[in-house]
Write a structure and sequence with these properties.
The structure holds two protein chains of two kinds.
Chain A (H helix, E strand, L loop, with lengths): L1 H4 L5 H9 L6 E6 L4 E6 L10 E5 L5 E5 L5 E7 L19 E6 L7 E3 L4 E3 L4 H7 L8 E6 L10 H16 L4 E5 L5 H11 E2 L5 E4 L12 H14 L5 E6 L6 E6 L3 E3 L8 E3 L6 E4 L2 E4 L13 E2 L7 E5 L7 H8 L4 E6 L10 H9 L3 E6 L12 H8 L2 E3 L5 H13 L4 H9 L18
Parallel strand pairs in A: 6-9, 6-10, 10-12, 12-13, 20-21, 21-22, 22-23
Antiparallel strand pairs in A: 1-2, 1-5, 2-3, 3-4, 7-8, 11-19, 13-14, 14-17, 15-16, 17-18
Helix pairs in contact in A: 4-5, 5-10, 7-8, 10-11
Chain B lengths: L8 E9 L21 E5 L13 H8 L3 E6 L19 H13 L3 E2 L2 E2 L2 E4 L9 E9 L2 E4 L2 E12 L3 E6 L2 E5 L6 E7 L6 H17 L10 E8 L6 E6 L5 H24 L12 E2 L10 H8 L3 E7 L9 E3 L2 E2 H13 L5 E2 L10 H11 L6 E7 L1 H17 L7 E5 L5 E6 L6 E3 L6 E2 L2 H8 L6 H12 L3 H8 L4 H10 L4 H17 L9 H12 L8 H10 L5 H8 L6 H14 L1 H7 L4 H12 L5 H17 L1
Parallel strand pairs in B: 3-11, 14-21
Antiparallel strand pairs in B: 1-12, 1-13, 2-3, 4-7, 5-24, 6-7, 6-23, 7-9, 8-9, 9-12, 10-11, 13-14, 15-16, 16-20, 17-18, 19-20, 21-22
Helix pairs in contact in B: 3-4, 6-8, 10-11, 11-13, 14-15, 15-16, 17-19, 17-20, 19-20
């Protein structure tokens, strides 16, 4: 029972609070040798030290009081327990397009957890709708929670589940699908769904936020408004990722799902389209198309191919890279390896034997570049030709993260190594762009 | 006024910008930018729920105003932290130490563990939609004229972005000031008359300066004043920069509160009840179809309306003066502006007037069914804005029955105040989860306690005994923004102590009165100026002109001033030539007066070389020359 009333408190301090019969939420008086403090007893952040009791004073400020042998704590009243009461959900308006929001977790669907002091994936898409009521003026929103998973805990099982749920929602007549997702691995998921659902009739739009939705400056509301608008009305039918284009709230950009990468750890404009053009932009309440080619909305039956082989590794080459890493993977029965090589797609000649070993064991191998921007070309230097000769497929301008997902998908959805290799090399969802355009930003 | 009888209680919050190396949560320099902004971006702020699940009222109001914010920044004073694009770093240790030092100087008790909080502010002045703030220490006291004034709390917070203009629905903010550390000292409501308030603020200011690490100049220290009287509630007046105005502000606010209570009594005497004041708005545009009033005419021409509302029993009260220059109608107008975004209101106590005629007023009264004792308020603007404005007027009028509303006000230059927003509650606070709590150990405090800066009163004594300053000058220096600079300068230039003291107090004040922007003088250029005096490259008489030139030419050096002003010390040969010339031109005088000619010749030479030669050198040279000449 004590575990619930005194979260985060440990050791002697916990004993003291327990004996004083106080719990989190109670109004308490704390007496030290020299001072008396009053306030609401708050939980202790779980990874903080065990020697301070935290109270919220009447002024609203939290303070920490150190444990000493003669510390006295007395309960002097009950307080309202913290709880989240979302405002009422606005009524849906008939005649508007239906948009389905599938929540998987992450910052766009999270709140500060005052129990631990951390940001937690706890808020449903319905909560979002109640907080961003203007969504109801754009579309009929149907929101549900598929997962509550932090970005870093998402894996290929979730991709499989997302593809399945998206297909169901399309079948039920949604004009567009939104998937809310933590941003850290969102680029992997958009790539995965680009391959896992083909022949799309409507847009599938991933969205996240870089500032949690509990704060006034959160980008989640502006991002959501834009993606709902696009899901309902945009002319494209692709898997895309919609987030802030720059630091301002005035422009939201839609990146192609297989060509997008998180390139900044914290800024709103973290996502960039790499080696391609963004699909569209939302600005002044309008959607403008940017890309020359895109798949149009159409009457089509989505095709689901959502199996992923988990025994695939993404290896970044670096000086002193030990070929033993490759050998170890092969011995552990890995089916595919994507190298993130240097420059045009190279690894040290010391890796040749290991690559041979892998090829002989039937491991599918591909080469991408750690430069992020640009294309591998393994014909320029002899090392490149040597590596190709030993069975490593040059994967053109594909992002290494996308290549990793693509290899999992290729292996997961084929019966033979030849078929997997063929799928890997085939342009399925714009992951290969035959032309590398000049996209140097003017500064 | 008998302040005791009405039980005037005043507490103040002093906000002082600190002169540390870094901002509070990032490594940007805590200075205002001197360059144009280098980038701009637009944002919106949406109020969120507080920890206890309540949407804060003040926050909601600001969002409802539909505001967009344009931020302007530069790469010298801003990084991603101020842009709300990177989480904050840890609380700056130098700032914390400075705050703890001040706390110990006023006998306050530092907390064992400091927790950084977010205080919701959605007017745009903080990019995150909240200001980061933390209590560092509780309790303490300052003594003024033998009386003790309690200190409740010492906290540390980040300064807000600077509002640099409004354009339609866009508020513009410059990011340079955001994140500069502010120490906030909150006193107990221990002041009971207007003059005490200024004295306590001065005292706190001088202890702050004694730490040697506070910023100086306009806006670097700001006070909030919390005022209440018997039968009222606490009204907070924010951002008072001029200490001299504090007594007037307190006096006027006291008057305003008393008048509001009198208006309530008067309404009750007239038999008016709150539920008689109802929000029935009528479109009275027709009445003003042919009006001569420009304001009404323009509003109607732009497709707007003239809406009217009746305030039963308010006749004579909307025009009632609350304090000099403020009528109750002004209060109604403030609320109308705040919630409706309109430019103002008219009420019948000020009509006919503003080109609105008696017959229009008569028609208006008849139209809304107002009897003699009623007042009528009109607003001319677009329909939706007018409606919100009049609803706000009704709410404010009704609130008279509750006495003094809990609100936040801002000071006007004349000492009156205006409504800015309802007073925010504690609901505005929630934990800043991106910054870890900081433990303050007894060992650390003991070390600080053993090394506290000298208090102002002992400085005062020391300046008199060690530097031989008279009491008045010593006091001026102790009360001056330049106290730390004074101490540094006197360390290096002992012989110039009095000159430095006079320059930094009387001279700078005089220059400021003459309109010289002395704010622009950095410590460096002032230091260089005295260096030049000490090394004999200029004379002390030139210091004011050099400083004037430097203030008017920011970024230039003291040496440039001497060159530009042509007041460099002339060489001995040049001086000899001037002396020679004067002797030649006045040979008769010299012959006639003999040794007594030294005086007039001195005057003539100095007339030519003032500021370019030391008088003592001139005197010696004239003496020598005179001896030579007379010996011939």
């Amino acid at each position: 029972m004590a575990a619930e009333t005194l979260p985060g408190y440990r050791g002697k301090l916990r004993e003291l609070l327990y004996c004083a019969k106080v719990g989190v939420g109670d109004v308490v008086r704390v007496q030290t040798e020299n001072e008396t403090y009053e306030g609401t007893l708050l939980p202790r952040v779980e990874n903080a030290d065990e020697w301070h009791v935290v109270i919220k004073q009447k002024t609203g400020y939290n303070i920490g009081i150190a444990y000493t042998g003669d510390l006295k704590v007395v309960k002097i009243g009950e307080a309202i327990k913290p709880e989240f009461r979302p405002p009422p959900i606005p009524l849906t308006r008939d005649g508007l397009p239906k948009v389905s929001i599938i929540s998987t977790g992450g910052t766009i669907a999270s709140r500060v957890d005052y129990v631990t002091g951390g940001v937690y994936a706890a808020m449903s898409s319905r909560d979002l709708l109640s907080i961003v009521p203007e969504l109801a003026d754009i579309a009929q929103i149907e929101a549900d929670i598929l997962y509550s998973v932090f970005s870093e805990n998402i894996n290929s099982d979730h991709w499989q589940g997302m593809a399945k749920r998206v297909a169901e929602k399309i079948k039920q007549g949604a004009s567009g699908i939104i998937v809310t997702h933590g941003t850290d691995t969102m680029g992997y998921s958009t790539a995965a769904l680009s391959f896992a659902i083909q022949n799309l009739p409507v847009p599938v739009i991933f969205v996240g936020s870089q500032r949690s939705s509990d704060r006034p400056s959160s980008d989640s509301a502006t991002n959501l408004v834009a993606v709902v608008k696009a899901a309902a009305y945009a002319p494209f039918a692709e898997v895309v990722l919609g987030m802030h284009e720059g630091t301002g709230d005035d422009s939201i950009i839609f990146h192609p799902g297989a060509k997008v990468r998180k390139c900044h750890s914290s800024a709103r404009y973290a996502f960039q389209t790499v080696n391609a053009s963004p699909i569209a932009r939302y600005r002044n309440e309008k959607i403008e198309i940017i890309a020359e080619h895109y798949r149009k909305r159409q009457d089509s039956e989505p095709i689901i191919r959502n199996r992923f082989e988990k025994k695939v590794a993404l290896l970044k080459f670096h000086p002193d890279f030990d070929p033993l890493i490759v050998d170890t993977l092969v011995d552990a029965d890995f089916k595919g390896i994507v190298f993130e090589g240097t420059g045009l797609g190279h690894v040290s000649e010391r890796c040749y034997d290991a690559i041979d070993h892998a090829r002989k064991a039937g491991v599918l191998m591909g080469m991408t570049s750690q430069c992020v921007w640009g294309r591998v070309n393994m014909n320029v230097y002899s090392m490149g030709r040597e590596i190709t000769r030993r069975g490593v497929e040059p994967l053109e301008d594909m992002l290494s993260e996308t290549a990793y997902v693509k290899m999992m998908w290729s292996l997961g959805n084929s019966d033979s190594p030849e078929e997997a290799r063929r799928l890997l090399k085939t342009n399925i969802a714009g992951e290969y762009n035959p032309r590398t355009l000049y996209d140097r930003r003017e500064t | 006024m008998d302040y005791k009888k009405i039980n005037l209680m005043v507490g103040i919050e002093v906000h002082q910008e600190l002169a540390t190396q870094h901002k509070l949560f990032c490594h940007c320099p805590p200075v205002l930018s001197e360059i144009e902004s280098e980038f701009k971006f637009l944002r919106r702020l949406r109020p969120s729920q507080s920890e206890l699940g309540e949407v804060d009222l003040a926050a909601l109001f600001e969002f409802l105003k539909g505001k967009t914010i344009q931020y302007e920044g530069d790469h010298t004073t801003n990084c991603l932290v101020e842009m709300d694009e990177e989480p904050p770093g840890p609380l700056d240790p130098e700032t914390l130490e400075l705050t703890l030092t001040f706390a110990l100087m006023v006998g306050s008790r530092p907390l064992d563990e400091v927790h950084v909080m977010r205080k919701t502010v959605v007017d745009g002045s903080n990019t995150g939609g909240f200001q980061r703030t933390c209590v560092v220490s509780l309790n303490g006291a300052v003594k003024v004229d033998g009386k003790k004034y309690g200190i409740q709390q010492i906290s540390l917070e980040e300064d807000a972005a600077r509002n640099v203009g409004e354009e339609g629905n866009i508020s513009k903010y410059r990011l340079d000031r955001l994140g500069i550390p502010l120490m906030e000292i909150t006193t107990a409501p221990d002041m009971h008359n207007p003059t005490e308030v200024q004295a306590v603020a001065l005292r706190i200011g001088s202890i702050l300066r004694a730490t040697g690490k506070v910023r100086r100049g306009i806006g670097t220290i700001r006070q909030d004043i919390n005022i209440s009287i018997m039968g009222g509630k606490v009204v907070e007046i924010k951002g008072v920069q001029d200490l001299q105005m504090m007594p007037t502000i307190v006096e006027y606010e006291t008057l305003r509160q008393l008048s509001l209570l009198e208006i309530r009594s008067e309404l009750l005497r007239r038999g008016i009840k709150p539920d008689q004041i109802i929000d029935v708005q009528l479109d009275s545009s027709k009445i003003f179809k042919a009006t001569e009033s420009k304001i009404l005419k323009n509003a109607l021409k732009a497709g707007g309306v003239v809406k009217a509302i009746k305030l039963p029993g308010f006749s004579g009260l909307t025009g009632r003066e609350l304090c000099p220059n403020r009528r109750f109608g002004t209060e109604l107008s403030d609320h109308a502006k705040f919630k409706g975004g309109v430019r103002g209101i008219f009420h019948t106590d000020e009509l006919p007037g503003y080109n609105i005629t008696q017959s229009e007023v008569d028609a208006l009264r008849k139209f809304v069914g107002a009897t003699e004792g009623d007042a009528v308020v009109i607003v001319a603007d677009d329909s939706e804005k007018s409606q919100r404005a009049l609803t706000a007027v009704v709410e404010r009028a009704k609130d008279v029955f509750n006495g003094i509303p809990l609100e936040t006000r801002a000071a006007n230059p004349d000492g009156t105040t205006r409504f800015t927003r309802p007073r925010p509650g504690a609901a505005r606070m929630y934990p800043e989860t991106d910054v870890k709590a900081i433990t303050i150990t007894p060992e650390y405090l003991a070390a600080l306690r053993g090394n506290l800066p000298e208090m102002p009163e002992s400085k005062l004594k020391r300046f008199q005994s060690d530097y031989g300053l008279n009491e008045k000058l010593a006091k001026q220096i102790v009360d001056s923004d330049y106290i730390s600079l004074f101490e540094k300068l006197t360390r290096d230039h002992k012989t110039l102590t009095t000159l430095i003291a006079v320059t930094l107090t009387e001279d700078l004040k005089k220059l400021q009165r003459d309109g010289v922007p002395v704010e622009a003088l950095s410590d460096d250029v002032i230091r260089d100026t005295f260096k030049l005096v000490d090394s004999g490259e200029t004379v002390k008489e030139s210091v004011p002109v050099i400083l004037t030139w430097l203030a008017q030419n920011p970024g230039r050096k003291a040496k440039d001033a001497i060159e530009a002003l042509g007041i460099g010390i002339i060489s001995e040969a040049q001086l000899a030539a001037v002396v020679e010339a004067k002797f030649k031109a006045n040979s008769e005088l010299v012959a006639k007066m003999g040794e007594k000619a030294a005086g007039p010749i001195m005057g003539m030479v100095m007339g030519e070389v003032r500021g370019k030669a030391k008088p003592v050198d001139v005197q010696m040279m004239i003496g020598r020359k005179l001896k030579e000449t007379l010996a011939k």
